[in-house]
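Worked example 2:
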Amino acid sequence: MDLEKYIKKKEYNPDIDKTEIWIGNFSDTPTINPIIIILEIISHFQNQDYKIIVDDYLEYNNGKYWQKPLIFKDITFNESVKFNYISFKDCVGFEKCIFKKEVSFSKCAFNERVGFINCIFKERTNFRGAFFCSKSDFSDTVFEGVKNNFSFIHSFEDFYCENINLKSSIDFSHANFKKIVWFERAIFEGEANFSNVEFGSHKKNDLEYDEYTYMLEKCIEESVVKLKGLLENTPKFIENKNDRNEENSFFSITFNDAVFEENAIFRESVFENMTNFTNTKFEKLVDFHLVKFYKAQQFYSTIFLDKAIFSNTVFHEEAQFLYCRTDSNSYIGFESAVFKRSLDISRSNFNDKVNFWNIELEEGDIFTSSKYLDDFENPEEESKSTKNIPTIYKKMRETYRIIKSYFYSQNNRIEALEFSKKEMLVYEKELKPFSLDKFILLANKFSNNYGTDWGKGLLFTMLSGFITYSIILLIEGKVNNLLSVLLIYVSFFVIINKARSINEMLSKVFFVFLCCLYVTILCFCSFPFAINWDSFIQQYLNTLNIIDLKPFEKDENNILKLSGLSYLFLFIGRIFIGYGYYQTIQAFRKYGKS
């Protein structure tokens, strides 16, 4: 084959100290394959100090198989390079190549490794709907074009974009990554769109399937069959992929040390495993609206310099924002976010730059969570052996304090009370057993649930009066059945401790009352106390009257003549009765307190 007619010119370039060989004129011979010509010319000059420049467009849209490897190194493409609807059976590699015009691999299928390493794309790139069936590597590549389209791609193995530099926007919307994705030390100067991305999901999107089927039917039937097999996860399309080792089924994405200089959109994306955002810098908007994190997620030393939107985001496992940084213009929005296993923001400087309106925060067994205990086993933290690492109780308590302070700053006392209660509950767990502070907190919890439940306060007051009066009757020998009295004690203690609402509490009180009355009458055929109902009710109410110092001595027909021991228990009991009054009033005033 005469290769000289495809060499447009040879000239020395002093800037690179090499002779440039310009290849082109492919349209003069329509029957030839330009790639074959280029590869033969490269092979002919491979041992000489030449720079190959392809000065003609390359375009393949025939929907066929490409059987041989496609390898280019240090080549400059002056015109557009387009491979559409091609199935590459062997590896594809471009290293240190420069593309000066548009590059398109739309709807292509890469069966083996594909690499665009240390390349420069001067114009737009289009990989929309491509299938990457083996390892893909775009590391150290610069994207200078106005638009870079990676939407609807499917990656079945590791996908590397380390140290890439995005000068303009890039679109990964509706992409599906089956395994690890690396964006370590990447720089995003334009908008990055990761909306509706699925990381590690095996679900087939019917809309995508219909789109690909429709488009490929325009090509050849064989390609449709192959891609259908791929979408159904059958071994027809990817050879030697059906012996999958579940130990290697680790799905993740890495953005550590990446810089997003423009908007980053992750809206409605799905993260099947933990994503690495260590030292990631978001200089503009980052949008996680409607995103689902199915595994424990940490944002370690992440920098939010503008708006970070986590509205309606669902964290199914632990969520931690550790040493995250903001500045004066930052805003962190957690509106309507759902945290299934609580949240830790105790050591991030969100301060007044955060919004927690309408969040749902569930706890479960978080106090045994190894993620919160060990800060997700961060290696940098482990190396600081002398550091005073706070306990999980302090982390959770500080988190609730921050959220409580936010609601108070918004004059939202209703939500603030809920997180004040959570803060006290955690502090109570943190204290040592049998300490005075723990006793005070337990009394507060038991009597009005930290100022939020007047029903508990009322029931605590009534129970304190009942216990006081029944002890007095026991001392004075007026108790027929001690077992029934103890049953009433235990039942009401359980109700106060476990009931979550006033309606639930009242229903349980009524049920216990009927049970105790039934047991007393049917089993023991007597009222628990050796006095009639009228006297019992009258003297019980006298016990609740803490102003009356001698409640049993005003009635001449009174059957009780209290001993000194009875007066002692009356004095002690009325302390608890008075405390119950105070706690009930405090709970009634919960929305009016400053």
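Residues 202-251 have pLDDT under 50 and may be disordered. The two ends are 91 Å apart (CA to CA).
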